[in-house]
Amino acid sequence: MSLKDFWYIVCETKDLKANQVMGIALLDDWIALYRTSEGKATAIKDRCLHRNARLSKGRVINGELVCPYHGWKYGDQGKLLGVPSEGAQHTPRASLCVPHFDVVENEGYVYVRLSGERVEEKLNSQPFSIPYFRQQGFQHIRLKHIFNAEVPNCAENFIDIPHTTYVHPGVFRYEKQPQKIKAEVERENGNVHIRYQNETSNFGWFSKFLNPSNKEIYHEDHYYFPNITHVEYQFGHRMKFNITSQSIPVGPSKTVVYTDLTFDYGIWNWLARPFVYWAAKKIISQDVQIMGEQTQVIEKYGELFNSTRSDLHHIWIEKIYSDLRLNKDPRVVGNQKQNIEFFI
Ligand code: FES
Ligand SMILES: [Fe+2]
Q1: Which strands, in side-by-side order, build the sheet including 239-251?
Q2: Mean pLDDT value of segment 121-138
Q3: Which superfamily, per CATH, for 3-124?
Q4: Per-residue confidence (pLDDT) for residue 212, from 0 to 100
Q5: What is the pTM for the complete model shown?
Q6: Does 53 sit in the ligand 1 pocket, CB within 6 Å?
């Protein structure tokens, strides 16, 4: 099992237009992404068979990708269709084909899998399905940000509670009398689940709106290997708020993060929408800043983390991701469960 065995978002469906080619970086590969004349998304290695020009710098004409150097033409899944210098009658050998990758479009995203291997049909035959996406009653907001950080550090950040008081003061949480939080942390094969207890409102000035009676909040965080986090909140009986983040490794210390927010605030849904959008943009840009600075230090001095007990889920995520980098199956460790406590 390796990082190449999983589905990664390469763009939003709406951004992959007919008769256009996109250049995509993913892990250590370069991809040329385009649509055939039938509108089917095709992902091929971004290297022309002829003299290795970058195909993503070419043009798509009637669903055929034309190399920018000498005009060789490619069709579905990188099949070579024509060589202009040989004349219109020339038929290229059928075996001439640029290496291609699996593509799936789901929930408004285009996903690519580099390895083409089905490690286990049930594990990764389809991309992750975003919880509550297009579910009745739920609003949806989608955001994209570029983090100068590695995937595991991004994933950790998205399910890290103690930083919120310091990085997002006032917006997400505020410093007050420290509140003791308990959590059950479970490592379930390669996934990590955190279920919080006795968390009450500490959400800055909009606590009054989300949780006016200050009831205990239902809160779970999940990490699905290798690159997905999902955060789920429920306030009182009705108000629900979820954040799904997919961290895409596009280069060394560079991660594109797609965030899907789904929320059901009942009658407040439409009124809340601009506010949720504004708050999410602000919170994520604060994370982009702190993560970029963390990366600068790691690049200068190397990564040397000291963890405490409340960092348990982060330690597990780092281990799972590093196993995958080494082509090891992170699930062999099996299930573990521990309770932790910390203050926010
Ligand atoms: S390099 Fe692509 S056609 Fe020559
Ligand atoms: Fe944050």
Answers
A1: 139-147, 254-264, 239-251, 228-235, 218-224, 191-197, 180-188, 336-343
A2: 87
A3: Rieske [2Fe-2S] iron-sulphur domain (2.102.10.10)
A4: 59
A5: 0.94
A6: yes
> Ligand 1 center to residue 29 CA distance, Å?
19
Q: Where are the domains of the chain?
A: 3-124, 139-343
- Banded model confidence at residue 176, pLDDT cuts 50, 70, 90: low
- CA triplet 289, 294, 299: central angle to 5 degrees? 125
**Within this chain, domains 3-124 and 139-343 share the same CATH topology:** no
Residue ranges of the alpha helices (H) in 107-162? 121-124, 151-158
Q: Which comes out higher in pLDDT, residue 88 or 249?
A: 249
Q: How far away, in angstroms, is 19 Cα from ligand 1 center?
A: 19
User: How far, in Å, from the CA of 196 to the mean position of ligand 2?
Assistant: 17
How far apart (Å, rounded) are the C-alpha atoms in residues 127 and 112?
9
Please indicate whether residue 17, judged by its CB atom, sits closer than 6 Å to ligand 1. Answer: no
Please report the atom of ligand 1 found closest to the CA of residue 70. Answer: 3
Topology adopted by domain 139-343: Naphthalene 1,2-dioxygenase Alpha Subunit; Chain A, domain 1 (3.90.380)
Best probe residue, ligand 1, of 69, 80, 90, 96 (max atoms within 8 Å of C-beta): 69
Q: What is the pLDDT of residue 133?
A: 95
CB of 140 closer than 6 angstroms to any ligand 1 atom: no
Phi, psi of 297, deg, nearest 5 = -70, -45
